[in-house]
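Worked example 2:
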Amino acid sequence: MKIFIRLPILVILIVFQFPGFSQKKPETLTYEPFIWESSPPKDCPFEQSKELVGIKFLGMKSGFRNGDTWYPSWASNDTLYSPWTDGYAERIDGYTDISRSWDGPSHNTTGQGVIIGDDPLHLESYSIGIYRAESKPYHGRYPSGSLVHNGVWYYGTYCLDPTGQAKYGDQTINWPWLGPFVGFRYSKDYGRKWVSCPHTPEEPIFKENGQNGYPVKIGAPHFVDFGKNMEYSPDGKAYLVAHGSDITDTKWRFWNNSWITGDQIYLLRVTPSIENINDPTQYEFYAGRSKQGQPIWTNDFDQIQPLLKWNNNMGCVTITYNAPLGNKYLMCVTDGGNTASKMNTYILEAEDLTGEWHLVTYLKDFGEQAYFVNFPSKFISEDGMTAWLLYSGNFATDWNGEQIEENPPGSHYGMVFQKVELLSQKGKRP
């Protein structure tokens, strides 16, 4: 059995200066606009949206060829702050930071960066440092939920690749599985100095155990993007969305619960503060609906229920509130296949975080290997119908003989922005 894992760029964890190596301006590209034909599998559980019916790529790409895992949070000072890792990113002083999240239990680092500007075609992006954290008993420790709120940056990490083995039936496999979400470090000066996370990979915040193939539910969580300084949160709480799986699955696939694959989506929330962010008792978890159809929230993690389910077709997930459209959320879900092949991304919409969620479009082989897909709220147009899709792509372009192409054009490893238009039913605004 061949094992496919996400192997980041091989880098050395020291600071270098590379003449001609850095990017002062974003790399841009234009091409012929086109509508991506939606092609959902027959067992897709989501009804087609009656309001948003597709995505048109407008033929404008921007971005930087640096590390991946860019999930920007829009701070009150109008700057976007984001994690990044597995590559390099230029610093403002002209030197280059190098981060690698998969470098052995004691050598993993994650980076922090900024994105400045109002137009993705004319951005400035640079690193403001890297941070080392222990991952034992796992091999990797990666960025996930990142939020800047009221001047405090909360930076979460999750683990990958337990050192144990997974056993299914007669098979015993060394399994690079998705590990638990650890918790948050935080900074009160926008990422210059950090207070370490009080939790560890062995004792993570929600006590999930990803070792020996045991599936987690709060996998690689990300904060819902509620706009500048979380201004559109419906109740002042920060919401996180995550992907996972459970032990009742009878239709597992080899990469059943990895950094980019899963069966289910989960939702949780907390009032953001330094006191609350690492206190598991302050979190509420979505636990299904009452007989009257109202969402149930509980402090008991054992009562958590999936927000959405689609066996063997889910994975990394993000949600953005589209304020100009009013009560409209956009969810991006990526099913990463075997984690190094062509990947599928689909976009859902809902008027409430707890649903119902409807399909906007299914982007088969998007990228063709696009991952960590999200809509930064800062770059949504005034009418809500035009936005920039941010993702990383094509880290394994020739994996085991499978050739990965750039589709749409400009899909590459690093930070990729694609300008898109949301298509509405018969051209009408939702």
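The first strand starts at residue 29 and ends at 30. The chain has no helices and 29 strands.
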